[in-house]
Amino acid sequence: MKTLLLVFSVLLSACSQTISPTNLHDLGLADSNAQLTASTITVTAPEWLRDNRIHYRLLYQNPTQVRYYNLDKWLAPPPALLQQRLTAAGINTPYPVTIEILEFEQQFTSPNTARAVMRFNAHAYDNNQSQVLANKQFALQLNTTSANADGAVTAFAELSKQAVQQLNSWLEKLNK
């Protein structure tokens, strides 16, 4: 009988434990001074980057294995988050532009050192989208302030601001 009560109390205490909720993240607040415009920019990504998991890689242990955080996720897939950031930034161009995300992950060089990496191609097309006018590859990275999901999210928020600035500079040169 004591054994049965012990088993019952263990099961009951296990049921009372709460499971940590998933933390949802985005790329932060947009610049409130930006003029929202109808964007001619489309953001795409390969299938493996079209989910809302925050990906990371342990370069020091197994650099070919992509992992993801279980309790922290993006509010939307990275292409949608970056599209929203570009639209909110008020980037407007007379040319249709396609952004193809190639990398969007946190990379650990040691257990306590990580960086966020964002790499994408930008293609500007003529108005019929039949001819590429210009291409550019952007490669951005930033060391994280902490080697965890919070560090990754903070770094990606900053990288998205840098992406907006660099993309805007490139587009301004095309418009001249």
What's the helix count?
A: 3
Class derived from helix and strand content: alpha/beta
CATH architecture: 3-Layer(aba) Sandwich
Cα(first) to Cα(last) distance is: 86 Å
Compact description:
By secondary structure, this protein is of the alpha/beta class. The protein has helices spanning 2-16, 78-88, 149-175, and strands at residues 23-25, 41-44, 53-58, 66-74, 97-110, 113-125, 132-143.
Write the layout of secondary structure elements.
Elements: H1 2-16, E1 23-25, E2 41-44, E3 53-58, E4 66-74, H2 78-88, E5 97-110, E6 113-125, E7 132-143, H3 149-175
Parallel strand pairs: 1-4, 2-5, 3-5
Antiparallel strand pairs: 3-4, 5-6, 6-7
Describe this structure in words.
With 176 residues, the chain is an alpha/beta fold. The termini are far apart. Helices cover 30% and strands 35% of the residues. The longest helix is centred in the last third of the chain and has 27 residues. The protein is elongated and about 50 Å long. Strands 1, 2, 3, 4, 5, 6 and 7 form a 7-stranded mixed β-sheet that branches. The chain has one domain: ABC-type transport auxiliary lipoprotein component (Rossmann fold), CATH 3.40.50. The N terminus is likely disordered.
